[in-house]
Automatic annotation (TrEMBL), chain A:
Family according to the record: Belongs to the YPD1 family.
Superkingdom of origin: Eukaryota
Organism: Saccharomyces kudriavzevii (strain ATCC MYA-4449 / AS 2.2408 / CBS 8840 / NBRC 1802 / NCYC 2889) (Yeast)
GO biological process: one example: osmosensory signaling via phosphorelay pathway
Protein name: Phosphorelay intermediate protein YPD1
Subcellular location: Cytoplasm; Nucleus
Keywords from the UniProt entry: Cytoplasm, Nucleus, Phosphoprotein, Two-component regulatory system
Primary location group: cytoplasm
GO MF term (any one): protein histidine kinase binding
One Gene Ontology cellular component annotation held by this UniProt entry: nucleus
SUPFAM superfamilies given in the database record: Histidine-containing phosphotransfer domain, HPT domain (SSF47226)
Gene3D superfamilies linked to this entry: HPT domain
Taxonomic placement: Eukaryota, Fungi, Dikarya, Ascomycota, Saccharomycotina
From TrEMBL, chain B:
Taxonomic classification: Eukaryota, Fungi, Dikarya, Ascomycota, Saccharomycotina
UniProt source species: Saccharomyces kudriavzevii (strain ATCC MYA-4449 / AS 2.2408 / CBS 8840 / NBRC 1802 / NCYC 2889)
Gene Ontology MF annotations: phosphorelay response regulator activity
Residues forming coiled coils: none
Biased composition annotated in UniProt, kind: Polar residues: 669-685, 693-702
UniProt feature, compositional bias: Basic and acidic residues: 325-338
Keyword Transmembrane helix in record: no
Entry protein name: Response regulatory domain-containing protein
Alphabetized PROSITE patterns for the sequence: RESPONSE_REGULATORY
Length: 167, 702
């Protein structure tokens, strides 16, 4: 498992997108807004999978899907968590790090001041042994999903700062 | 015999180092390690340094400094042989006669010798006492850094010249035995000095401390040590060990017991490259695996040359990314070697071309780089290229040996299509100069286009340019030109983006729109296959993990369809050329579509799977837009070459595909139709382009 990037946004990547604003002034902002919708939808879908079908392949696909767009926008910490979900869904990885550990990797930890890092967490309901071998992956994915919600929140704060609007 | 309790390590230190790594560094080794292994270990220790980047095993040597001294071998013991006639540089310490040389020694610095004690020493059974003559270098010069002033009791190696160097040491005893060059099986000429503490320290303690002036040495060597000498100045020379010499032997020879060497006695690492010189670090990239991160791209001051801007047709009728890699590697080599990169050659006829290519061949003969490129461009080309004609009356092997790079002219402006009125007989050879990526504006990123050069920098026209780009090239006006006309240089191709994520679709689509490249979107593999079947596509960017039908599967299906329809397959090798001239042959069918996979950056497996499934290339996600534009140009140009006819007809043909009108017809038919429509251009014997277009579209296997 690679280590999570310490910066929320990879500006090298995002700037490439932003540079296309020349032609279409709100192009990058539009993409970001689109991404915010997409991420929330995807999180909800993942949560539904965890609560209901518990289909690891489906979770893998959802992780891959969100990884693609978050990485394309330079939202690298979200992309990293999504990749974990993807790999957990494929059973290529077997655990997910704790939230504190990951938060500590942030290069600028001041961003977490004033927010409740557990606010969006959904309770992890999966019982060990619930679904044979899959349970450890499902539990880890549930943890990762909570993490991705947090990362999403952080990215949103950063992006709102950049665009100077409440995204 | 060696103290196995200690870790075997040897102190090494970079000679003349000016920066971070100038202190002695201990490197572990074991029984089977050679000097070369030591070098590798040393590099490992310094893996992150700049010194490491500019050196490799071949560029450094391990050795030591030794002062030039006349031999002072004890006459009574050593029957030195002075081989006057041999100025060779390879010396061999020989120990065959060492047992005879045991009775007395001479102090190098006029120290009192003590024969009795010496005898004791020699009779001491411990093999750890064995010392070689080289040991004296360190015994005499504990701080070898100052070896110039240090005394050295080792027999001096021969100077390259006929004159024997004379000793500069005032302390030196009158030389009585001169044996600068030792031949194998000669009597050991080395002076032998023994010290008290040698006897007292049999267990691997430091035998020589800097303040201990006592010298001792033994010529006892069971094996010849091979080394070279190199004169540094009048009083000093370097001893350089051969790379295959066993480290353990050298250690024993120099220091004796394992652990005897102190840090101040470090062996020297001689490197060819001086850090003080400003040598740009030239990373040797494995281009096949190398995928730069966005950071690298934005940060690199110097980009490796990327030739993907241009189309490469190899006469040996294969185009693959592998060959392109070769090409790139050759370029890298060129970048390092070529001191005169701005040398252009004007090629106007076949004869000149042949000579030029022969010259290139000659120059390249010694290197392992057969991919030296000649760039051939149709100059002012407006007509159809007759790929089918095979005018090889004087095809010589030299031109076949090289990559021939051909770039049909692209339309420069919106007006130019109207100028495509008729075939043009005049051809020229043009030069392509790649632009380092960093010089381009980030958002414009037009890859180097030969056309641009052709049309806007006439001073380069008709040139044969050997080295596409070198670091030392003076800034030229090209980057500006690219910035201003960026949107016009992309080939007219139809692209299909297969991507399930709308955001990525939007990014790629917006990029293509910006560059006025027509594209279609598919959100899964099945859609991609369906759209492909409609025809007219040149390039597919294929995400791999897709719903419904994966990118891998879609690529496989497309390739299967192509095979079934004979697309890109050469039929009937025995067909005579006359068929082509008549334009009746169905020998060639439409070019296969180029599929570029979009893979996760960290998944080697995905990349392999993608290539195996029939993708031509891959881009890693998140897609770097610089690379994307390169790929578009590269593959677009390739398509233009492979299927020039359909490319030439531009968008009208693509959107108005024959296939769409008559979907029952296999795709191949549309192509044969188009071939029939082609009016073969009049053969022009003076056209080098024609000659080098000894390539047929489908000789290229995709």
């Amino acid at each position: 498992m690679s280590t999570i990037p310490s910066e929320i946004i990879n500006w090298t990547i995002l700037n490439e997108i932003i540079s296309m604003d020349d032609d279409d002034s709100d192009f990058s902002k539009g993409l970001i807004i689109q991404f915010i919708d997409q991420a929330q939808t995807t999180f909800a879908q993942m949560q539904r999978q965890l609560d209901g079908e518990k289909n690891l392949t489906e979770l893998d696909n959802l992780g891959h899907f969100l990884k693609g767009s978050s990485a394309a926008l330079g939202l690298q910490r979200i992309a990293w968590v999504c990749e974990r979900i993807q790999n957990l869904g494929r059973k290529m990885e077997h655990f997910f790090p704790n939230k504190v550990e990951l938060v500590n990797t942030l290069s600028d930890r001041s961003i977490i001041n004033g927010i409740n890092i557990d606010e969006d967490d959904e309770e992890i309901k999966i019982q060990v042994g619930d679904k044979d071998d899959d349970s450890i992956y499902l539990i880890s994915i549930a943890k990762a999903l909570n993490q991705s919600r947090l990362e999403f929140k952080l990215a949103r704060i950063e992006l709102s700062k950049y665009y100077n609007t409440n995204l | 015999m060696l103290n196995s309790a200690l870790l075997w390590k040897v102190w090494l230190r970079i000679d003349n180092s000016t920066d971070e790594v100038n202190q002695p560094i201990a490197v572990q080794f074991d029984e089977i390690d050679t000097i070369d292994d030591l070098k590798s270990r040393f590099f490992q220790r310094l893996s992150s340094t700049r010194w490491r980047e500019i050196n490799d095993n071949a560029s450094i040597a391990i050795g030591l400094y030794a002062p030039k001294l006349e031999s002072q071998g004890d006459i009574s013991n050593s029957k030195s042989i002075y081989d006057n006639g041999d100025n060779g540089n390879v010396n061999t310490f020989d120990s065959s006669n060492t047992k005879n040389c045991t009775s007395s020694t001479t102090g190098a610095f006029g120290l009192t010798k003590d024969s009795a004690r010496d005898k004791n020493v020699l009779q001491h059974p411990k093999p750890t006492q064995k010392r070689g003559a080289l040991y004296e270098a360190f015994a005499a010069a504990p701080t070898v850094a100052m070896a110039i002033n240090a005394d050295f009791s080792h027999n001096e190696a021969p100077s390259p010249g006929p004159q024997r160097p004379y000793s500069t040491s005032p302390k030196q005893l009158p030389a009585t035995a001169k044996s600068p060059l030792l031949r194998f099986a000669s009597v050991s000429p080395y002076p032998k000095f023994y010290s008290d503490n040698h006897v007292m320290a049999p267990t691997g303690l430091t035998y020589v401390s800097p303040h201990n002036k006592t010298k001792y040495a033994r010529p006892l060597m069971r094996k010849g040590l091979n080394y070279k000498t190199e004169s540094v100045n009048d009083s000093t020379y370097k001893i350089i060990f051969e790379p295959d010499e066993l480290a353990i032997n050298i250690y024993k020879e120099l220091f004796g017991t394992m652990g005897s060497q102190s840090a101040s006695q470090s062996l020297r690492i001689f490197s060819n490259v001086n850090l003080r010189q400003d040598i740009p670090p030239l990373d040797i990239l494995n281009v096949a695996d190398y995928v730069p991160t966005n950071d690298e791209i934005s940060q690199q001051a110097i980009q490796p040359i990327d030739h993907r801007d241009v189309c490469v047709l190899h006469p040996n009728n294969q185009i693959s990314s592998g060959e392109r890699v070769n090409n790139d590697k050759a370029d890298l080599k060129d970048k390092g070697d070529d001191s005169n990169p701005q040398e252009f050659k004007l090629i106007t006829d076949e004869e000149q071309l042949r000579r030029a290519s022969q010259e290139l061949k000659d120059e390249e003969k010694d290197t392992e780089s057969p991919w030296q490129a000649i760039l051939l461009l149709p100059k002012g080309y407006k007509g159809g290229i007759d790929f089918q004609n095979k005018p090889v009356p004087c095809a010589d092997s030299s031109s076949i040996n090289e990559d021939t790079i051909i770039h049909p002219e692209l339309e420069v402006g919106p007006e130019s299509p109207s100028q495509q009125s008729g075939p043009l007989d005049e051809f020229g050879v043009d030069m392509i100069q790649s632009i380092p990526e960093c010089q381009r504006r980030k958002d414009d990123i037009p890859p180097a286009s030969p056309i641009l050069i052709n049309s806007q920098t006439p001073q380069y026209s008709g040139s044969l340019y050997k080295t596409p780009f070198t670091v030392s090239s003076p800034p030229d006006p090209l980057p500006n030109l690219f910035t201003t006309t960026s949107e016009k240089v992309f080939p007219k191709i139809n692209v299909l983006i297969v991507e399930d994520n709308v955001i990525n679709q939007a990014i790629l689509g917006s990029f293509l729109r910006k560059h006025k490249i027509s594209y279609k979107l598919a959100k899964n593999g099945q859609e991609a296959v369906n759209i492909w079947k409609e025809g007219g596509l040149h390039l597919i960017f294929m995400d791999l993990q897709l719903p419904v039908l994966s990118g891998i599967e879609a690529a496989k299906q497309i390739r299967d369809f192509e095979k079934q329809n004979g697309i890109g397959i050469q039929k009937g090798l025995n067909n005579s050329h006359s068929n082509f001239d008549k334009g009746t042959s169905k020998k060639f069918s439409q070019a296969p579509v180029i599929i570029v996979a979009l893979t996760a950056s960290n998944s080697q497996m995905d990349k392999r799977k993608a290539l195996l499934s029939g993708c031509n290339d891959y881009l890693t996600k998140p897609v770097n837009l610089h690379w994307l534009s390169k790929k578009i140009t590269e593959w677009g140009c390739m398509q233009a070459l492979i299927d020039f006819d359909s490319w030439k007809q531009g968008e009208s043909r693509m959107t108005d595909s024959v296939l769409v009108k008559s979907p029952q017809k296999p795709i191949g038919c549309s192509n044969s139709n188009s071939f029939k429509q082609t009016t073969p251009i009049t053969p022009n014997k003076h056209s080098p382009v024609r000659k080098n277009l000894n390539l047929s579209p489908t000789q290229i296997e995709m």
